[in-house]
Amino acid sequence: MEDALPFIIIFLGLPWIIFHYITKWKTAATITGDDEQLLDELYHLAKRLDDRMDTVERLVASDNPEFNSARLIHDRETDNQPLRELDRLLAEKKGTRP
């Protein structure tokens, strides 16, 4: 029995441990539908907040000429480029064009 124990450990125990953790890894790596919906909602909220921030900064800048916001100094197109990239990726995923 003592001679068979290493073979049992190598041929049964080791593959079981490997396949167990591979299965755990694959199930943990997937994103659920609820997670995806939450990410979509957070993305849309971030986009709305970015638009609101731009509006508030434009209003403050029009009332107070001395106001210099870092966001207003930079090009607005450059500021919104990451959001456009996310829009494009979401449209590709859903099968529609933006």
From TrEMBL:
<dbReference type="GO" id="GO:0006355">
    <property type="term" value="P:regulation of DNA-templated transcription"/>
</dbReference>
<keyword id="KW-0812">Transmembrane</keyword>
<keyword id="KW-1133">Transmembrane helix</keyword>
<dbReference type="GO" id="GO:0009271">
    <property type="term" value="P:phage shock"/>
</dbReference>
<feature type="transmembrane region" description="Helical">
    <location>
        <begin position="6"/>
        <end position="23"/>
    </location>
</feature>
<keyword id="KW-0472">Membrane</keyword>
<dbReference type="Pfam" id="PF06667">
    <property type="entry name" value="PspB"/>
</dbReference>
<dbReference type="InterPro" id="IPR009554">
    <property type="entry name" value="Phageshock_PspB"/>
</dbReference>
<protein>
    <submittedName>
        <fullName>Envelope stress response membrane protein PspB</fullName>
    </submittedName>
</protein>
